[in-house]
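Lecture 7 notes: from sequence to structure.
We start with the chain below.
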Amino acid sequence: MKKLLFIVNPMAGKGAYKTNFGETLYTLHAGGIVPTVRFTAGRGDATAIAEAEGADYDVVCCLGGDGTLSEVMEGIVRLPEPSRPPIGYIPLGTANDVATTLNLPKNNMLAAARRVLHGQPMDFDVGTFAGAGTFTYVAAFGAFTDVSYETPQQEKQALGHFAYVLEGMMRLPKITKYHARVEYDNGVLEDDFLFGGVMNSTSVAGLIHLNSDKIRLDDGLFELALVKSPKNIADLRAILTDLRERTYDGRFIKLVPTSFARFTFTQPVAWTRDGEDGGSFEQIELRNLNRAVKIIV
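Predicted structure tokens for the same chain:
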């Protein structure tokens, strides 16, 4: 039987893991897996557990949201490459962007557990973040990027994804522009931006959606997304229209593939890393680690 390290975030999904947890464990065991359960108690725990124990298991599986998966991936990347086990994911979060991208069952523990049993591992790119840590699917600055980690936990649990929408609407008057020089594989761009991000996903915060037929998760390239700052209401309407219609080659929105991106600002700017507070930087570099991990899909 295979050994599985099961890292569980008990706060995810309004604590919904309690409903089917026993049956989920039984499903894994009946499928030929011996699960060892570890619960997280705070930020960084999943990374520490995955790094300390992951190499001793055939599979490392996490139950939680995108933040939990991000922590587990960082722990696995810290292991020597030959010792990195594939990662299973049972999504029980609020936005579940990675699950949307990978077409995994969301908020359905038994279906996700069966996917871990019968799915196949695929290569997955991971990004380096400012030379200290990694990110799984997005590193970004600007409009709405702080919504996820500043939305109170009790609101996330009570309202779910709608909490993000409410918090985002409340932040509309606070949107500011950021002057930045952006270097990437095939060019340099300097302008005032409303938003900037480096992504390996088709869905970000459940609000930004990219065309899945144009996105590969193991090609050594991220999608660099830049939204220029609007000068008036008409510009803002044009941006919203382009986002809604997924038009990413217009006057305000630029989307290009790149293996790295270096951002230089005139003052420190706050970043998010996979929906969590990533710190503030006057200059930051992000690089693609091609096929750094395997995830079961």
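Points to note: The two ends are 20 Å apart (CA to CA). The chain has a mean pLDDT of 87.
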